[in-house]
Amino acid sequence: MTIVYSLVSRGKTVLAEYTATSATGNFPTVTRVILSKIPTVDAKRTYVYDSHVFHCIVEEGICFLCMSEEGDKHRIPYAFLNDIKEKFTVKYGREVPQRAIAFSMNEEFSSLLRDRMEYYNNRNAQVDNLDKVKDQIDQVKDVMVQNIEKVLERGEKIELLVDKSDRLNQQAFRFQKSSTTLRRTLWWKKVRTVAFLTALVAIVLYIIAASMCGLSLSKCIHK
Question: For residues 15 and 100, is the Cβ–Cβ distance under 8 A?
């Protein structure tokens, strides 16, 4: 992996850039085309333009871009871009780059771009292994978070099931109580009905007997 070109820009306004002495090609011309296509929203992107592979990080309207020779490897270019982004922010802050004119930072920052490009190009294997370890740690961290979220989600579902079970038990108890009350009410209603009918029959029989034997039933008794 070799990084042969890098720059820092605000939109299409290049603030600083550096091209490796061993590189051949019209990288500055090509990057101007690329810069006009890069959205200003914060993001990481990789562009392929003919045989050139460009990686960039955009943050708060400032674009950090480099060109590498191998399109299937991204860790080293992005490690380099994150490195220069941090150093650029420490050196210039966040407000100065927003109003700086073209190439106003080139004299100071191009040498830093050169030094960091040489560092990452000469120690690419070590950087690559370091990034692999970081990626693995991030993946494990993501898995842990996902597992925790799954456990929490499962716990919430269990709590919901327990809550539903409690509600069902309460409803069953209320139904049983209502059934007992209903049975008792129906029994008393039946008793009252039987008592009423019994009393009614007795009254009817008394009326019939009284009409024939007198109110005191003395006529029938003496006979």
Answer: yes
The torsion of the CA quartet 61, 63, 64, 68, rounded to 10 degrees, works out to 150
Using the Cα atoms of residue 33, residue 35, residue 41 and residue 47 in order, give the sign of their dihedral: positive
pLDDT digits (tens, 9 = 90+) for 96-150: 999 999 999 999 999 999 999 999 988 654 555 555 656 555 554 554 444 444 5
What six digits make up the tokens of 197?
């009918």
In b/e form, how buried is each residue of 73-90, taking b as 16+ CB within 10 angstroms? ebbbbbbbbebbbeebee
Q: Which residue has the tokens 């050169």?
A: 114
- Give whole-number Cα distances, 54 to 5, 13, 204, in Å: 9, 17, 112
Q: Is the pTM of this model over 0.85?
A: no
Angle, to 10 degrees, between the axis of helix 75-92 and the axis of helix 106-122?
150
Quickly list DSSP for 27-38.
HHHHHHHHHTTS
Q: Which long-range contacts (CB under 8 A, 24 or more apart) does 147-151 make?
A: none
